[in-house]
Amino acid sequence: METTNDALDTTVSHKKTVAVILMGGPTKGTRFRPLSFNLAKPLFPLAGQPMVHHPILACKKIPDLAQVYLIGFYEEREFSLYISTLSNELKVPVRYLREDKPHGSAGGLYKFQDLIMEDDPADIIVLNCDVCCSFPLTDMLEAHRNHGGMGTLLVKKVSKEVASEFGELVADPKTGELLHYAEKPETFVSDFINCGVYIFTPEIFRVIKDVTSSKHERSVVRRLSSFEALTISSSSKYTLQADFVRLDQDILTPSAGKKKLYTFETNEFWEQIKTPGMSIRCSLLYLAQYRVTMPELLATGDGKKSPTVIGDVFIHRSAKVHPTAKLGPNVSISANARIGPGARLIHCIILDDVEIKENAVVMHSIVGWKSSLGRWARVQGGGDYNAKLGITILGEGVDVEDETVVVNCIILPHKTLNISVQDEIIL
Prior knowledge:
alpha/beta, NTP_transferase_dom, nucleotidyltransferase activity, Nucleotide-diphossugar_trans
C-alpha cells in the first residue's frame, strides 16, 4: 500500500499548478468605505497581514506551484511595493494582471489565458480575495485529481437562514459530483454553499470560450433584430456583456450534473469579507489559526516588562505598547502605533501611526491611520459585524479628544471629535 502511494505522489509532483486570486477593483467594494479611501481592499490588514496575503500563503504550500497571479482593475502602482516585497519573501513569482474593465470572475481568467497557461499547468487554483478561511488547498487538490473532472469547488454547510446570501448547491453525497447550482436563489435549494475557492483543469478555458461565443451571438442577433441596432454602436453594452462571464451563473449552473464538476467540503472556518465589521471577525479567525500555523506571530506579555496580553494578539515589531496597557482578545496593532499607559484594547484593529493615550478604551472598532485617541477617551461598537453601525470605524487622521465617547459610529477622515456621539455617520 505504501508503494502505491509513493508512486502516486511521484506522478502528482510532476504536475505544475498556478494560482489565480481574483481581487475586483475600485468600482466595487463601496461597502468597505471609509477604509478603502486610503488603501485597496485586498491590502487591508487582517491579523497583521494584508487580506490577500492569507490565500497567497495557502497557495505557497502547494507542491510545484509555478506562479501566483493577482487579477483586478486597481491601478498597478497600488500593488507594486507589496508584490516586490512578497516575491522576495516567498521565493514564488507573484504578478499583478490589470484588467482594462470588469470582465467577471471567469472573463478575467479568460482574458489572461495565455499568461496563466505559460507554465503549462495541469491545474489552476482560483480564489476570491474577499474570502477568509483555512484554505485546505493541498487536500482539495488531491481530491480534485482523484475525481478527474474539470473542476472542484470548496463548499460548506451553513444554517438555512443565511444560505440564500450565497450560491446554493446540491451534490451527490457519495461521489461529490455537483448536481445543481443556483446563485442566491429566491427559494431555498440547499444548506450547502459555494465558498469561492476552486481548482480547475485547463478545460475551463474552452468552457468560458463557448459561453463568450454564445453571448456574443445572442447580442449580435438582438442588435440586428431591434430598433437599438440603429442607435447603438458595435461597442454597445450588449457587446460588453458578451465578454463579461461569471464563474457562478455562467459556468457552474450550466455545467452542473454533467460529471464535470465536484465538491470538496470544509468543516473549518469560512467567512466572506464584505464589510469593515467582518474584518474584525476575520482577524479573530486568522489570529486563532496563527496559534497552530505561525505561533511566533502572536504576542505574549504579563503586564510587567510587556503589556498584559489576553487571547490572540498581533503587535507589529515597530509599534510601542506601554507595559501597563492591556490587550486582547482579538487585537491587531499595525506599524508605528503607540499605545499609552493603562489603555484597554478588545476586538479591534489599530492601523499604522495611531496614537492611543493613557487609559483610553477601544472595543469592537477599527482605528484608521494616523488617528489619535485622547486620555480616557472611549471608542466602541456593539459587536454586530454585519450591521452598518455594528462597529465603530475611524477614518484616517481622526482625533478623538480627551474623555470623548464614540459609540457605533462611522467617522470619515480628518475629523476632530470633542463631544460624545452615538449611532451616527459623521461626514
